[in-house]
Amino acid sequence: MGRRVQRGRATAAARASWPALVTACLLLRTCEFKTAHASKPNILLIMADDLGIGDLGCYGNRTLRTPHIDRLAEEGVRLTQHLAAAPLCTPSRAAFLTGRHAFRSGMDASDGYRALQWNGGSGGLPQNETTFARILQRAGYATGLIGKWHQGVNCATRGDHCHHPLRHGFDYFYGMPFTLVNDCQPGRPPEVDAALRARLGRLTQWAAWGILTAAAGRACGLVSVPWRAVLGAAGLLLVFFASWFASFGFVRRWNCILMRNHEVTEQPMGLERATGLLLKEAVSYMDRNKHRPFLLFVSLLHVHIPLVSTGSFAGRSRHGPYGDNVEEMDWLVGQLLQALEEHGLRNKTFTYFTSDHGGHLEARDETLGQLGGWNGIYRGGKGMAGWEGGIRVPGIFRWPGVLPAGRVVSEPTSLMDVFPTVVRLGGGEVPRDRVIDGRSLLALLRGAAEHSAHEFLFHYCGEHLHAARWHEKERGRLWKVHYVTPRFHPEGAGACYGQGVCPCSGAGVTRHSPPLLFDLSGDPAEARPLAPGSEPRFHEVVSRVGEAVRRHRETLSPAPPQFSRTHILWKPWLQPCCGTFPFCSCSRDGDQGDT
Questions:
Q1: CATH homologous superfamily of 38-180+256-454+560-587
Q2: Nearest 5°: CA angle at 114, between 108 and 118?
Q3: Catalytic residue at 454?
């Protein structure tokens, strides 16, 4: 009887406490959700275009004013050996977005083209590649891209948008689907396929003179060419000229456009207003998403040529148009950081600043002078995958209260490391069904790890391996082996003037056997190549790196080349257009970008 009473009391107590238990569980789950939600920081990624590592005060510049980026470095962690995976825009950004070398997705050169050339081409970042934006979008993040894309637009039809940012995990896009080129500014020398355009222009002139000469000779009775043949040749020439001019004569209209999501909003775009438009869009995105975790990738148009600085920045610096553009870029970064402050997001945001590769040494103008960046003590520049100046870039991270302020890290790191870093920050999973070349930086940034996760890094120029580095952690040595280096023109100039950028292969490079060897731990400028007579371990180091290269090559598998001629060519049926093709023209943003 007593046991029944006890059992009854226990049952009654359990029934009475059931609502309390349910409530407690719900509260606990709510707390867990809030904790998990709060632990996901906002992520602000800022990438400059063609910025030299030596252009910033925090990396040694004393003649350009970059106070906002310098303050970002003071409040966070600065990497001194941060490396791009490729020395040109399209492949470097593909590697950044996916955490994989660009050639793994076919996004690097397989022939003469090393970057996408047209909005109306069919090449671009394949759909089977996974970006950090796609993973974070699935993890509940708002994901925005403001600025430059340069990873393709369409595949088979205008409007299929198979390569578009919204097909790669971004829920909002505003900016240039292509990139800045000289053709975007009227009066500047042509840039897109400039050599081909010149050849086609000369061919057209010669053909026209030939037809006119034949017609004149036929009219004067000096030659017996039938009029039908003369008129047929003239017709063919007219068709050829029309098709040639339809692409190359309208480069600015086809490539220099702004889009909001899938809609073209400005065609052609006005360079003077672009900075203000992009800034307003970035600040607006932060405001719209400040109550939920967001990933915002601000892909700056600065400091790629043509250099258009607005307002008070024109003529302000000591280094002409390029210096003006750098200082305007710094101001723009300052505005983004101020927006975080005003929205109360500073301490909730993981902020990162970098460049896609080194400064463009060959960017020069007879009147305006040097239009490219300064890579500090490092040899080489944009387009050169082996020399440090082409691939060593700024790397600055800030997350107040989590990352130590003022920390400097001299370990080898890569732009590809941002992929696993932000994926893990956002609670996502790094894909396991493919090779991921990046390694998470979280432990290194926090000071929990002494060394980078990279022992070897491989430096490609297109599909060609030019160099590799070995971080011999136990001895504190950093070795760099060069298998191929560009031949500078003129010799000894340190750049390939007159060629746009240095080539990756062919007569424009030198192959080294035995390879060049440098000890970057004592010679970061790569000024003193080592030899068996000066370095007792020469053969040991070269052999060790060679073995690492062999193992690395075992991870490679072919991918459809996105820069093949069939993908690179302009196709009118793929051209993004505002209005009716070919009468594409609009300015739907009005005066919103005025600063």
A1: Alkaline Phosphatase, subunit A (3.40.720.10)
A2: 105
A3: no
